[in-house]
Design brief:
Elements lengths: L7 H8 L1 H22 L7 H4 L2 H18 L10 H17 L6 H29 L5 H28 L13 H24 L8 H9 L4 H10 L3 H31 L16 H43 L6 H18 L8 H15 L2 H7 L7 H8 L1 H20 L7 H16 L6 H4 L6
Helix pairs in contact: 1-8, 2-5, 2-6, 2-7, 2-8, 2-11, 2-12, 4-6, 4-16, 4-17, 5-6, 5-8, 6-16, 7-8, 7-12, 7-15, 11-12, 11-17, 11-18, 12-14, 13-14, 13-15, 13-18, 17-18
């Protein structure tokens, strides 16, 4: 099927739902560890509590990719039914997670939230490849990254913003502050609204041969055998990209799970108070706990706000790429490599950051994030079978979630422990991991993956 060249606003509309998805991910990534700490989790327990996120991605994304490849609805198309279902479930989970009365409830909500976000997210990646001519795919993924950057910055600043508007950061022992509850409620609303916008402003191409499509759906190939066959037949470029993804996502999972304890302790010098160190029946101890907890909650707001800068810089980076790739080709390989180097430097500089300079570390990290969300997918889309784009995008997610599972099961604690007991060592590990990911770009040699080659 010959695909027409789409205008900017058509690409914007089909990607706009990612604003809501990123609201969900930014609130989860910036504040879930804070919720865990508020409910009594120690910093060494936090990575394991986060294991829900990669495990659900490992299971959900290939399944949704497989199902959406084999779906066609006369009104909602192939990918949009999954956007809508995921948005409804994600919005419900986002609203209720800050009301968790116990640590195990919060961990359970994280399972539901991440599974629901993945139901929406995976088809968005496939939709870009479905709708855009190959010459526009880098452009399309970069527009998607621009929207993700906007969502990251705004959502990361929500608790700080609502706190400035007078909503309290103080709370009783084991209770999440109202500023976080309000921020998550806003995120739930934006998530649903932005997905609905894409669902009702975007159309999809039907299968080229509907009769053949229906026959293929009725074939008795099992999902598991299809997954195994496609994993075994992965293009070599996809495997090389997987190595890059491994180290990239190990680094970002480390940031999401441990940046709050590391930076509140090392940069702001206001670690989360440990309940066992206070006798709450003694008025002086209770007052000391309340002071320490309020200081921790306020510095957590500032850590979240600083983290939002990585969304802002990824947005600016994506905007530059949008302007450039709308007219010219780029070398995806070298853009990605140097972006990862800069992100690695951002993590390493955290060892020397002050509360005022922390945002510059996240500015560098945002350049890596902007590239991670666009360049690997653009390179992948040029090297796989278009008829199985959803399946391969889902399988590609394995290279994202496996490093996170390894990190959650003790990988972060083990590697950072080699450097010492300080929480900030986790950020050093993240920086070194991004540098390794950057060097792995030298493995990519496929010319069409590096830069789309016109057939003319």
């Amino acid at each position: 099927m010959k695909k027409r060249i789409l205008g900017f606003w058509e690409i914007w509309n089909m990607s706009f739902g990612f604003l809501g998805i990123q609201f969900g991910f930014a609130l989860q990534g910036g504040f879930m560890s804070r919720i865990f700490q508020t409910l009594g989790a120690g910093k060494d327990e936090i990575p394991l509590l986060w294991i829900a996120a990669p495990l659900t991605g490992l299971l959900v994304q290939p399944i949704i990719g497989y199902m959406s490849d084999r779906t066609w609805h006369s009104r909602f198309g192939r990918r949009r039914p999954y956007f809508l279902i995921g948005a409804i479930l994600s919005s419900i989970a986002l609203f209720f997670v800050p009301y968790s009365p116990a640590l195990w409830v919060a961990a359970g909500f994280l399972w539901i939230l991440d599974a629901s976000i993945n139901v929406s997210m995976e088809p968005f990646r496939a939709l870009v490849a479905d709708k855009l001519h190959e010459s526009q795919r880098t452009y399309g993924f970069v527009v998607q990254t621009l929207i993700i950057g906007i969502g990251t910055w705004v959502a990361s600043n929500l608790p700080w913003l609502v706190s400035k508007m007078g909503v309290s950061d103080s709370a009783d022992l084991g209770v999440v502050p109202d500023s976080v509850k309000v921020a998550f409620a806003i995120g739930a609303f934006v998530f649903l609204l932005s997905i609905l916008y894409t669902v009702f402003t975007t159309t999809e191409y039907p299968p080229e041969d509907m009769e053949a499509f229906e026959r293929e759906k009725k074939e008795k190939n099992s999902f598991v055998s299809d997954i195994i066959n496609n994993v075994g037949n992965m293009p070599i470029t996809m495997k090389k990209l997987g190595v890059i993804q491994f180290f990239s996502w190990f680094a970002f999972f480390t940031m999401w799970s441990l940046a709050n304890p590391a930076l509140t302790e090392h940069v702001f010098e206001t670690p989360a108070p440990v309940e066992a160190n206070f006798d709450m029946s003694v008025p002086a101890d209770k007052e000391a706990y309340d002071i320490a907890n309020t200081a921790f909650q306020k510095s957590s707001n500032l850590v979240g706000s600083a983290m939002g800068v990585y969304g802002l810089s990824s947005m600016a980076f994506a905007l530059l790429l949008v302007l450039y790739t709308s007219k010219r080709r780029i070398n995806r390989k070298y853009v990605h490599m140097f972006s990862l180097f800069l992100g690695g430097a951002g993590f390493l500089f955290m060892n020397y950051a002050s509360p005022e300079s922390l945002k510059y570390c996240f500015l560098l990290i945002g350049l890596a994030w902007g590239s991670i969300l666009s360049m690997p997918y653009a390179m992948l889309s040029s090297s796989v079978d278009p008829k199985r784009m959803g399946m391969f995008m889902g399988i590609f997610n394995m290279f994202i979630v496996i490093p996170q599972i390894i990190a959650a099961l003790g990988g972060i604690n083990f590697v950072s422990g080699l450097l010492g007991e300080q929480a900030i060592n986790a950020m050093t590990v993240a920086g070194l991991s991004l540098v390794i990911a950057g060097l792995c770009n030298l493995l990519i040699t496929n010319r069409s993956a590096i830069s789309y080659q016109s057939e003319n």
